[in-house]
Every structure is written in C-alpha cells, then in structure tokens.
Design a protein that fits this description.
The protein is mainly β. Helix content is about 0%, strand content about 45%. It has a five-stranded antiparallel beta sheet with strand order 1-13-14-15-16, with no helix packed on it. Strand 26 and strand 27 form a beta hairpin.
Length: about 675
C-alpha cells in the first residue's frame, strides 16, 4: 500500500490558493517595518540565537535563522529513529518521541527553502521534504539536506510526496505529478501527457494498484495499472456545485479509499468525505452537524479502523456512542486549525496545527509540544539593549535574552493590540513600541504606544492619553528622552478619518501633535524618523497628490523646523528610510533610488552616481563603516572603501524581498522577511 503523507495541510485557504502559490514580490509600503539604529557599543556578544544543526563552514559567512517553528502544515513519523518530523513555513523540526527534545533544520543545513509543504519517511528510513517553489530534498548520512529540482525545467513547486509499493516516490506539484523510480529515473505526468491537470494536493495507491491524485479544483485523476488515465469528479449537488478540491486521500485498514474534499460557497467550506469500497462502489460519510463551514484537511485511522479528522476548526475524534468530540485550543490542542494527522505504532495520534504539535495518547491524554520561536508571519522591526536582549516586533513583543530564552508580551499582558508595528530603544528611556491592527476599518482606530522600562514596568498610552494616531509607523528618541511618534492617515468609519503627522511626548509626560506641513513634511504619511548625532530630528514622508511636494524636514535641537528640499531630479518620491553615514552624511532611501546629502548640504543623486539607482527600503550602518541597503532585488552593501557588494538568496538570504535590517551590538546583521523569518549573518 502506498505510504501517504498528508498533503499541504493547508495554509492553502482554498479561495486564496493562487495568491499563496504566487506571492507578490512587489514592495508593500503599508507593511514596511522600521529599525532602531543604535550606536555600536561594548555589549554582550551572545544574543542567545538558537543554533541550526548543521556545522557552519570553517571560513566565510555563517547564517542562522529564527522562524515560527510552530506553524506546522505536515508531519511524518520515523518509527525506527523514534522521531516525529514537523514541517511548515519555518523549515523542519525533528522531535524525539521519548525525550520531547527537538532539532531544528534550516537552509543553513542545506534545505532549498524554509517554506516546506510535506515530509515523508520512506520504508528504508530516508527522509524527504517538499518545498514550495524549490523542489524537494532528502536528508543525507552527512546530516545535511540534498536538494532535487524534481523537474527538468527548474525547481518544482512541490505540494505532497508519497511512496508507492515499488519504492518509487511520487511528487505532487503545482503542475502535475512526477515519479522518481527506485533506480533514480524520472517520469513526468501532466495535463499534456493525459495525467493530472493542475495542482496535485494528495496522492494514494489503492489495493487494486490504482494511483489516485487529488486536485485543487480539479477532482480526481486516476492512473490505472495498464498506464491509462481517468478523470473523475468527486460529487455534484443539485445546484451544480462541485466538491472538487481534494485535500486528502487515504486507504483505511479495510482497503477502502477515503476522499476528503470540499466545495466553497460564498467563501464558506462545504466539506465532503467520500468512500470507495473495494468493489468500486461509492458512499458518503456523514459529516453534517459536527463539522460545519470548515474544510476537513486530513483523515487518519486507528488500529480498529476508526477515522479521526483534522479540520479548520479543530481535531475530531470518535466517541463510543458514534458521536464526535471536538478538540481545540481550549482542550489543549496546539491550534484550532488542524492540518495533518498520523498514528504511531503505539496507538498515539500525532496532530499538527498552525500552533504546534500535539499528541493524543492511547489513554486519551492530550500533550502539546511547542518549540517556541517567532509568532506570526509579519515582522515589523528589531532593537537591541545593552544587556544583550533582542526585541522583535511580531505578533506581540518577542524578547530573546542573553541566555537565548524567549519571552512574549501580548494583549494578555496589557498590550492594546496584538501586532507590534514599530519600536525604538534608548539606554535612558527604555523601549518604546507601538501596537495596532491593519485590515478591518473598525479596528484601525484602536491602538497605541507602550513603554517598557529597564526594570520591566509596562505602561501604555492611547489616543485618550494624548497620542494622536493609532497607526504609528516609526518611533525615535532624542537625548532629552523626548519620544517622537510618526503616523499615517487612515479612515476608521464612514467619513471619519484621522490625519497623519507627528506626536511628541516629552520626558515630563506632556503630549503635543504636529500635523503635516506644521513642521513635519508637507507630503503625506510620515514613514521615517531619525535622530542624528547633533540631536536633530529628520522626518521623511510620502508624496501625495495635491500636496506641497516636500517630503523631508529637519527639526533642530532648539525646536525650529526647516524644510530640506531634495534635488529637482528626484521628482515626486516616497521616502522609505533615513540613515546617517560614517562621515555624517544623510542617506535617503526611496523607491526611485538613494539620495545622499553631505554635511555641507550638497546632494548626490542616482543621476550622478548610477550605483545608487536602486529602490532602497531600509538602511543600516555597521561598525566597519559599511552601509547596508534592502531593495526588492536583495541586499546592496557599500563598504567603507567605496566597494559595492550584492547579496541574494544564493548567498543565504531567505528571500530577496526583505522587510527590515538591523546591526546587532555583536556585529551580526539581522534581516527579517515578510514570511516571518529572521536571518542572522555573522561575517566576523
């Protein structure tokens, strides 16, 4: 019988699958994160970074990665090694079934990507993973992963992997199925060859020797033993709606094929579970009443043949009276969105969810296994203090102390909203950070800023306390402990909008607000704040239609404001970030290039210096005098000797579209991306 791996388990929220499969590479200014640029001081070099399992090279750059290791989409059990493999958008984690300890694998260990869709342990004990847009890889005896593109046209977008009776491996991809024979030869079955016509989410082989392929909005493709193909729909309701997105295919102990599918009506899932008996007859398994408006993602069977289901709203287990019991977060499951299931030989059920790994023991006890790490998929900034603590703006405020221990502040601890959007640390003032929500209009006016003192005291301030805007985009602090909060315009109800500008809070606790044009730039939303060595505040914003066109101003230490005009060749630009270079020059990052203003006020533009003609999202400087720039194409580095260097995913970055960059006190360079991963580069 084919050894089936639970498909994709789905972050493929079906109505959004195409958007997930083809993530935009465009830079989104609304989501741009902000970084605190700290002076390099003698701080604790050990920031407590969890190390990857691979051995770093003896020389050259070394990479480490921080991810959301609890965002699990698929699992597989290695009985011989007593390990449970968990994969997701974070890479791979191998859990020891006896000790509960875990080992993390990242691209530093040879994985072709952190975005993994599936994992399989073959009968011979070899471990394979499928990667989104990066092919597949197997774990070698050297402890490193070895990549395989799967197709001849470049790395495939692999969604699921299974092993057949002959020991061959099937790879379901975005465009058909591909088989690797035991001798290593490949065959490719796509729409053009009569095979699966689209994205293959699940595969199973029945006892008749037929291989079944479940498709995204395509029903079923069947490969008969004689090599012929057949295309089937799963079911059809009276209104003509087709249940033809097949999430899972499994063969039960009696040899019946179970087809887990769904149809979507008005963005609501209508689940269906169909059963094909050994004589070819179809029947329906009744799911009505116990799983409603949620897709079922996977099914697994215990030794007695009882089915257990993973669904968007939890884990469903059978009771003795034939009713169903739902397990969710309230009952101890690692997440309400369950994605994959597998029984071990001791009768324990392992359940993956978008919140961690859980084990339902044969005695009915539920145990949660969470590895820690980042929460959420959007990261909005980084900061470091003099004690060796690292602060990460994520879903909550994450802190990694000098020993490597993680802690979180969330709404349960007093945060106004759960998403931290900007932060700034000052040795005298402590840490300031902002929280807010994007998305629904009614939520946009609920947010605020928080202050975390060095002794751990947390205070928060909202609009009722004097903060003008709930949408804070950046924070800066000067030597007088005055805190500046940049904001953008937004509407929170029909005809109810709040203008962006600059809120100022002095050390004595007084608040004031300056709308754009009253000191801050006459452009649109304020995007960047910077306090220089002279304690001048630089303010950069977006250009807006009908605005003055001025996007850069300077507030001198005496409180007087001055507009700083960009050179005429700049045109109407949006300022993305500001930084001070080693010689005191001002570096202005925009989507139309980098502009440099020296201490005498003279500008250098991309027209005079073509090397500056790239979009700059974020800028940081290191202790060696180099400037680091994030662009939609990767990273550009200007060394102190004038030499330029570029860096892409080929050099170890997780993505060419990064959201932020920061230089840690120990000299390591930290990058965050929009998939919730932090890459840490050590070039020392």
């Amino acid at each position: 019988m084919l050894r089936s791996v639970k498909n994709l388990a789905s972050l493929l929220l079906t109505v959004l699958l195409v958007g997930i499969m083809f993530p935009s590479t465009a830079y989104n200014q609304e989501d741009r994160s902000k970084t605190v640029y700290l002076p390099i001081t003698a701080m604790n070099a050990n920031v407590g970074i969890p190390s990857a399992t691979g051995v770093p090279p003896a020389s050259g750059p070394r990479w480490q990665y921080l991810t959301n290791t609890n965002l699990i989409t698929d699992i597989a059990i290695d009985e011989a090694a007593r390990r449970v493999w968990a994969v997701g958008r974070f890479g791979a984690v191998a859990w020891d079934m006896d000790s509960g300890t875990s080992t993390f694998y990242s691209i530093a260990d040879g994985l072709p990507s952190h975005w993994l869709s599936s994992v399989l342990v073959t009968r011979s004990g070899e471990t394979w993973v499928g990667a989104r847009g990066a092919g597949a890889a197997h774990l070698g005896e050297d402890g490193r992963w070895h990549a395989d593109p799967v197709t001849n046209d470049g790395p495939a977008d692999v969604l699921t992997i299974v092993e057949d009776d002959e020991g061959g491996l099937w790879f379901g991809t975005l465009y058909g199925a591909h088989r690797r024979a035991p001798d290593g030869n490949w065959s490719h079955d796509t729409r053009e060859t009569g095979g699966p016509g689209g994205a293959v989410l699940s595969i199973a082989e029945d006892r008749e020797g037929k291989t079944w392929f479940g498709l995204y909005f395509g029903g079923l493709s069947v490969l008969h033993p004689d090599g012929s193909w057949e295309q089937l729909r799963v079911g059809q309701d009276a209104d003509g709606g087709l249940d033809d997105t097949v999430f899972d295919l499994e063969v039960d102990p009696q040899g019946q094929l179970w087809v887990v599918s769904a149809r979507y009506v008005d963005h609501s899932a209508r689940p269906r579970v169909s059963i094909r008996s050994g004589d070819g007859r179809w029947s329906e398994f009744d799911v009505e009443g116990w799983v409603e408006n949620a897709a079922i993602r996977a099914v697994a069977f215990d030794a007695a043949g009882q089915p257990f289901f993973a669904a968007d709203n939890g884990l469903f287990v059978p009771r003795a009276d034939s009713s169903w019991h739902r397990l969710g977060v309230a009952e101890g499951l690692a997440g309400d969105f369950a994605t994959s299931l597998s029984f071990d030989r001791d009768g324990n059920l392992w359940a993956a969810a978008l919140g961690g790994l859980s084990r339902l023991g044969s005695d009915g006890a539920l145990q949660m296994l969470r590895r820690g790490g980042l929460r959420g998929q959007s990261l909005h900034g980084l900061a470091f203090d003099e004690k060796g603590n690292t602060f990460i703006a994520a879903e909550g405020l994450a802190t990694i102390d000098a020993s490597g221990s993680w802690s979180y502040l969330t709404t349960e601890d007093g945060l106004i909203q759960k998403t931290v959007k900007a932060l700034a640390y000052d040795a005298d003032a402590g840490l300031w950070f902002a929280t807010s929500l994007d998305g629904y209009r009614d939520d946009k006016d609920v947010g605020g800023v928080h202050h975390l003192s060095q002794d751990g005291e947390l205070n928060h301030y909202s609009r009722a306390d004097g903060l003008h805007s709930a949408q804070v985009t950046d924070i800066a602090i000067d030597a007088e402990r005055t805190a500046f909060f940049a904001s953008k315009s937004y509407c929170y109800a029909p005809k109810q909008c709040r203008e962006g500008g600059l809120t100022i809070r002095t050390a004595d606790g007084s608040w004031s607000f300056l709308p754009r044009g009253s000191g801050p730039p006459g452009g649109g939303d304020i995007e960047a704040l910077l306090v220089d060595a002279d304690q001048s505040l630089w303010v950069g914003s977006r250009a807006i239609a009908g605005g003055s066109g001025e996007v850069l101003t300077r507030r001198h230490p005496n409180g007087l404001w001055a507009t700083v005009s960009l050179p005429p060749s700049a045109g109407r630009v949006n300022i993305a970030d500001l930084a001070i270079g080693p010689n005191g020059s001002l570096w202005v990052g925009t989507l139309r290039g980098v502009f440099v203003r020296d201490v005498k006020g003279q500008w250098t533009t991309p027209l005079e210096e073509p090397a500056l003609a790239f979009a700059a999202i974020s800028i940081a400087s290191d202790a060696q005098g180099a400037l680091w720039f994030l662009s939609p194409e990767g990273v550009h580095i200007l060394h102190a000797d004038g030499r330029w260097e570029s860096m892409t995913t080929d050099d170890g970055l997780t993505d060419e579209v990064l959201s932020d960059i920061a230089v840690a006190p120990d000299g390591t360079i930290w990058f965050s991306d929009n998939a919730g991963t932090i890459s840490i580069l050590d070039r020392r």
